[in-house]
């Protein structure tokens, strides 16, 4: 959850600020439109309900884990700004490995939710380019059973290689 919040702290802050200052809505609308274009439709729908004044747990319905974490952070931030995620925090790839490995393992077992989550992540990673695009390909190969780190991490930076190594190590534990 902390990894998700580190990656999306700006969005969480922007939504909370906009709820308190409606003059910021045009700027947030641009972000929400772009998010919808990138496939984050359910998250954006929940954010729009929050912007409309809804604050109950029904805004969490039909959200995947990542969208739920973001939405819950927004709701907490509206109640207590002290709980807002740190804008300067950066996601630590080392901490992402166990979660990614568990998703790949679940996808290997045919878990539809894990398959869908990996597909959604892969789309975003490919759009990001670089190591992230290569990681999307590696995760897909891991899902099919590939565990050759050299093959999976071909063309990645040393940090990308380390992440792939850690994910494969975690997969071997499951």
Topology:
Layout: H1 2-20, H2 25-37, H3 41-51, H4 65-79, H5 93-108, H6 112-128, H7 130-143, H8 149-152, H9 158-173
Helix pairs in contact: 1-4, 3-4, 5-6, 5-7, 5-9, 6-7
Can you put this structure into words, describing what you see?
By secondary structure, the chain is mostly helical. Helix 5 (93-108) crosses helix 6 (112-128) and helix 5 (93-108) runs parallel beside helix 7 (130-143). It contains 9 helices and no strands.
Task: Record keyword descriptors for this entry.
single chain; 174 residues; mainly alpha; 0% strand; elongated
Quick summary of this structure?
With 174 residues, the protein is an all-alpha fold.
- State the separation between the terminal residues, measured CA to CA: 21 Å
Structural Rg: 17 Å
Mean pLDDT: 87
Largest sheet: none
Class inferred from helices and paired strands: mainly alpha
Number of helices: 9
User: Stretches where pLDDT falls below 50 for ≥5 residues?
Assistant: none
The coarse overall form would be elongated
- How helical, in percent, are the residues? over 70%
Q: Kindly estimate the percentage of residues that lie in beta strands according to DSSP.
A: under 5%
How many β-strand runs? 0
Series of H and E elements: HHHHHHHHH
